Automatic annotation (TrEMBL), chain A:
Belongs to the intradiol ring-cleavage dioxygenase family. One of its GO terms (molecular function) is ferric iron binding. This is Protocatechuate 3,4-dioxygenase alpha chain. It comes from Kushneria phyllosphaerae. It is an enzyme of class 1 (oxidoreductase).
From TrEMBL, chain B:
This is Protocatechuate 3,4-dioxygenase beta chain. It comes from Kushneria phyllosphaerae. Coiled coil: none annotated. InterPro entries: Intradiol_dOase_C, Intradiol_dOase_core, Intradiol_RC_Dioxygenase, PCDO_beta_N, Protocat_dOase_b. Residues 86-114 form the Intradiol ring-cleavage dioxygenases domain. GO terms for biological process: 3,4-dihydroxybenzoate catabolic process. Residues 1-16 have a biased composition (Basic and acidic residues).
């Protein structure tokens, strides 16, 4: 059946609905607290790991930086990562100690910095037996971004695993691979390791974005 | 090998979607990558899996914007504006319904003002209207929201740029590969072809995928008009199990 606003391709396969920017007010829909709206019964937010989660607790912070070197203060990010044993936990459950999915946003109050509270993901074993180095899949939305950008955060202190990761090495330029490394900053004080991952949208040090 | 790793989606046609760099929409100029995307010829478990929100607890009015916000529960009444329903199906490119997937939406009020700390537009906030909704699709992929028709609003781009009335819509689909954020416009709105954000699309047929159609058959007598808006996410291909047996 032909759908009202769906466009068929020549071979009868429908066209994907076209993308549009999430715009400056994305927070109303996906980050209510940042917009200044009251929370609903449950929200999807930036704490992927609770106190009972297994694994090394980490904090990931960063900025999204535009082609002028300025901080993008209205970016929204989504994270998708494996648990400490390298398994994805698709079923979102606010009561579970760990969730594979989370959201965060840059805020003006935080000078454009975003933050995830999580655990270091384990290496993901693929069907062919190869292992992907620990990584967090990140999706970036913002005003001025017409279609969301997909990237991966790897850890600088996992150089051996990174060297063997088929996706990390699918990036032809060794220089550009470095843009995916989160840098260890310091202990945030309570034994939580802090990593910084700045995402450069354009120009020098431009972050690698994937198509998949 | 897990079934998920055998999954393949129809490749995303990046000439159909807006290009990242679209100078008519000025903010895109400094926020668009200059390097080519790195294509993952063999997507992995990371890209082929995604969150499932069936256990996300929602309130009874999360998809009813006429009822889900009151600035002052004692005194604020129903929102001002034209009552509408917006409904449709989430299907993939082969027409297969996507059940139990999360659909989220947000919008301005009838005057074109967003309930957002940063929106300074002259039009007033509506004490009876928040502007956010969410729901899961049903078994057949249907979703539904009750709301008011948002107003158009001016924005700083060209000297006199106006957004057509629109509702922002976000859909997850079966994996992070199908993730999509778009906007629903309203059939017949003369501002659609004038909008620099709509114009980021090159193909008029791509614009047509974002236009909600008046659906008189589902409009409610003496209550509200209905708009039909289907969301098409990337199709999941049938896989060959090459390494079976
Ligand atoms: Fe908008």
């Amino acid at each position: 059946m032909q759908q009202p606003n769906a466009q068929p391709m020549a071979d009868g396969v429908l066209r994907e609905t076209a993308s549009q920017t999430a715009g400056p007010y994305v927070h109303i829909g996906l980050a209510l607290d940042i917009a200044g709206l009251p929370p609903r019964e449950q929200e999807i937010w930036n704490r992927l790991a609770g106190d009972q989660a297994e694994g090394e607790r980490i904090e990931v912070i960063g900025r999204v930086i535009d082609g002028n070197g300025d901080t993008v203060r209205d970016a929204l990010l989504e994270a998708w990562q494996a648990d400490a044993s390298g398994e994805y936990q698709p079923r979102f459950d606010s009561d579970a100690p760990f969730n594979s999915f989370g959201r965060t946003a840059a805020t003006v109050e935080n000078d454009g910095e975003w933050q995830f509270l999580t655990i270091k993901p384990g290496a993901v074993t693929l069907g062919n037996g190869r292992q992907m180095a620990p990584h967090i899949n990140l999706t970036v939305f913002a005003r001025g971004i017409n279609i969301h950008l997909n990237t991966r955060l790897y850890f600088e202190d996992e150089s051996e695993a990174n060297a063997g990761c088929p996706v990390f090495n699918a990036i032809e330029s060794p220089t550009r691979r470095q843009t995916l490394l989160a840098r260890r900053e310091s202990d945030s004080g309570d034994g939580v390791e802090r990593y910084r991952f700045d995402i450069r949208l354009q120009g020098e040090g431009e972050t690698v974005f994937f198509d998949f | 090998m897990s079934d998920i790793e055998n999954r393949r989606f129809v490749p995303r046609d990046r000439n159909w979607h807006p290009a990242p760099h679209t100078p008519g929409y000025k903010t895109s100029v400094a926020r668009s990558p200059r390097q080519a995307l790195v294509s993952l010829l063999k997507p992995t478990l990371s890209e082929l899996s995604g969150p499932d929100f069936q256990n996300l607890r929602m309130g009874p009015h999360d998809n009813d914007l006429l009822l889900n916000f009151r600035e002052d529960p004692q005194h604020s009444g129903l929102p001002i504006g034209e009552r509408i329903m917006m409904h449709g199906r989430v299907i993939d490119q082969f027409g297969k319904p996507i059940p139990h997937t999360l659909v989220e939406m947000w919008q301005a009020n009838a005057g074109g003002r967003y309930r957002h700390k940063k929106d300074q537009y002259l039009a007033p906030l509506d004490p009876g209207f928040g502007g956010v909704g969410r729901c899961l699709t049903d078994e057949q992929g249907w979703y539904r929201f009750r709301t008011i028709r948002p107003g158009p609003y001016p924005w700083p781009n060209d000297i006199n740029s106006w957004r057509p009335a629109h509702i922002h819509v976000s859909v997850m689909g079966p994996s992070i590969s199908t993730r999509l954020i778009t906007q629903m416009y309203f059939e017949g709105d003369p501002l659609i072809p004038l909008c620099p954000i709509v114009q980021t699309l090159r193909d008029p047929e791509a614009v047509a995928t974002m236009v909600g159609r008046l659906d008189m058959a589902h409009s409610r007598t003496m209550d509200c008009l209905t708009y039909r808006f289907d969301l098409v996410v990337r199709g999941e291909l049938q896989t060959w199990f090459e390494n079976q047996g």
